[in-house]
Known about the structure:
The chain is α+β, with helices and mostly antiparallel strands. Helices cover about 15% and strands about 35% of the residues. The longest helix is centred in the middle third of the chain and has 16 residues, at about 130-145.
Amino acid sequence: xxxxxxxxxxxxxxxxxxxxxxxxxxxxxxxxxxxxxxxxxxxxxxxxxxxxxxxxxxxxxxxxxxxxxxxxxxxxxxxxxxxxxxxxxxxxxxxxxxxxxxxxxxxxxxxxxxxxxxxxxxxxxxxxxxxxxxxxxxxxxxxxxxxxxxxxxxxxxxxxxxxxxxxxxxxxxxxxxxxxxxxxxxxxxxxxxxxxxxxxxxxxxxxxxxxxxxxxxxxxx
Length: 221
């Protein structure tokens, strides 16, 4: 859906995590509930048949990071936006409530599309290793462009991770340690993933944020 020609007040809010999870039709995984993280939004990748409604093939949850979760108004929570950021200026036109809330939260660090649940459609090419690698490079390409991407948009990712970087580990999911995978070789991000049978869960976190969060996961209700 395109909104370029519509007034901001006419643009509907984006889907919620709950809406995307319901459309996904299978359990969606997120971070274990913890004070330093709050759900920010959701991204989906899907396909449709004969122009019908798209069915999500993956659901990616983004989070706001609170470095001081006991006081959300603490300036220590704010991200470094730079002097030229448009978020430091009042909007020139009226905005709907959901956009104003998003602008407010955009002043804080975020873990963009950090935890992704992917439906397994083809076991021949869609392995836990390949999905973890793809998610990791996706985050590097989109959130570390200044440090890692060469050339114009979309550019070329410098030193992408590959399946040779994948190690076997375990991590907590729904209160028990599950067999999983990790990528611990990249200088900017840390990644984990697990095969859940009909789904693959992967998570990618900037290394700078690791001290503030617990790398544990749960199935969303």
